[in-house]
């Protein structure tokens, strides 16, 4: 058994740590959040480095790397905020649906421009009436011969509004079939297609990248935009969820560690009652407990990444990593808020940003309750 990274992984990590300080540093991250500004400079720098091709096979111009390299990427880039990692990770795992389920023509058409940063992807599964129960999607794609006619609404689609974005949309193509998940398909929907309206939502999280509602009104989407088989969308979405859940847990480790380190530094320097607050057991043991929990989460995350890399089914393991990564990050952010006292509420502390983001991780990409449900089912309950 070996808990260390290989030399290649270690070099990747060191390079990414340097890149993060330079291109996605503390103040830049804070400014993008406060100004609700997309980190375009970071995107440009990352595209130049070829990050978007990390998981794409070499024959399409990518690096053909694996889930462990992806997890390292997420952990490093998310140091000051998950948002900075999600700039790349969301389109990256969407592009993997094309790699795994696309036709040769789709791969040739979409992957090379994606790697060059000329095209982005976002994912739209959630709807007003279909949240945790993703199989209830009702956004209707009627078969009209050479195209689908799209009508309905999508909710909370991250980065759907960005220029050159193609929305990977879960739609209903059979409304009578039982179970309902067998009537879902996945379509590539350009966000500027006639009949598609994308509106940014005023959320307290994801303020830099943005999250949107999407309204589809008689939008004509060509048949060639179908990913995978007609009514075979559930398979595409489930395959995608393992990587999405890894993308929803590896960055927590990076951001939670930064948040905890900041709390430790503050506890060392903030003096009350004649000594640093970190010398009070009420503070020090609280932070020590959380460091122990975070180390355990990190092991769960990298075990999931390893299992995905080895192509070992890991529904249970990736759900355990996602569950604890969200809950432990939220516990850390809450403890950091407590440690910083009133100063926690100032944006300059960075703690309130971590706190907002940590809460999202217990909800987005499958809530903590849904992860427990999956784990329990896998346990035979
Ligand atoms: C900032 C942000 C970005 C997002 N980005 C995307 C995106 O890019 N693409 C996308 O498709 N979606 C996205 N989402 C949607 C996200 O995945 C959903 O919000 C999430 O899956 C929960 O769905 P819901 O909000 O409808 O909550 P609901 O499903 O209505 O759940 C409400 C509460 O009930 C609980 N609950 C529901 N069912 C059960 C059950 N069976 N047992 C126990 N408890 C249950 C939930 O855990 C939760 O606590 C995003 C959300 C946010 C906030």
CATH topology of the largest domain: Butyryl-CoA Dehydrogenase, subunit A, domain 3
Level-1 CATH class name of the largest domain:
Mainly Alpha
Chain-averaged pLDDT: 96
| CATH architectural grouping of the largest domain | Up-down Bundle
Tell me about this structure.
There is one protein chain. This protein is of the alpha+beta class. It has 3 domains: 7-118, Orthogonal Bundle (Butyryl-Coa Dehydrogenase, subunit A, domain 1); 121-231, Butyryl-CoA Dehydrogenase, subunit A, domain 2; 248-378, Up-down Bundle (Butyryl-CoA Dehydrogenase, subunit A, domain 3). It is built from 12 helices and 10 strands. The protein has a 4-stranded mixed sheet. Strands 2-3-7-6 form a 4-stranded antiparallel sheet, with no helix packed on it. The chain has a two-stranded antiparallel ribbon with strand order 9-10. The radius of gyration is 21 Å and the shape is globular. The relative contact order is 0.11. The mean pLDDT is 96. Flavin-adenine dinucleotide (FAD) binds next to strand 1, strand 3 and helix 12.
